[in-house]
Write a structure and sequence with these properties.
Elements lengths: L6 E8 L4 E8 L4 E5 L5 H10 L3 E6 L5 H4 L2 H8 L3 E4 L13 E4 L4 E4 L2 E7 L8 E5 L3 E5 L2 E2 L2 E2 L9 H12 L7 E4 L9 E2 H7 L7
Parallel strand pairs: 3-4, 4-5, 5-6, 10-13
Antiparallel strand pairs: 1-2, 2-3, 7-8, 8-9, 9-10, 11-12, 13-14
The chain binds fe (ii) ion (FE2).
Fe (ii) ion binds next to loops.
Amino acid sequence: MLKNKNLFLKQLEVGEMDNFTYFLGDNNTSEIVLVDPAWDQEKLKKEIKKQSLIVKAILLTHGHFDHAMGADSLALYFKVPTYVSKNEFSFYKPKGESIVEVDDGYTLNVGAIQIKFISTPGHTPGSMCFLVENSLLFTGDTLFIDGCGRHDLPGGSATDLVHSLHHIIGNLSDDTLIYPGHNYGSKKVDTLKNQKNTNHHLQPR
Ligand SMILES: [Fe+2]
């Protein structure tokens, strides 16, 4: 399904809330970032070691504990920065000196792979999606396969979520592959085109 052979991607299901942690990076250099590393940190470390991967950074789609609980200790362990939206509530952000607060449009290269940070508020004020090589989108709790995240938690906004789904994610290429933050759907990845057909949160309003 991946078109870019240089892209390294591993989707790991972790914890008791069906979360996904992703390893994402460059096949040629083995450099990766950890997206939403949470729950079973030993499992993540073991997998990283087994595949001889080089962790360069941690990226958080948002600060909820089920996505961010591994960030503090893994950042310390691998001596890497953690990227989180500057708009995220401070009480959702991990602590420590290695936090890098970023804005919409920020880009990060891992080896030759480009990751663009896209601000998609609604689930939390600082929810972000990560667009990789213009073809894969890591959506955290903003968009699930055939669902979307809650907007009734602290800092959530239904209006913002609808805007993010329809006018930010909805404007991306139909070929974009959607990689959600939880395994809540009937599949683990889908195209935006399919989701526009089957996910009622993306239907025209
Ligand atoms: Fe969340």
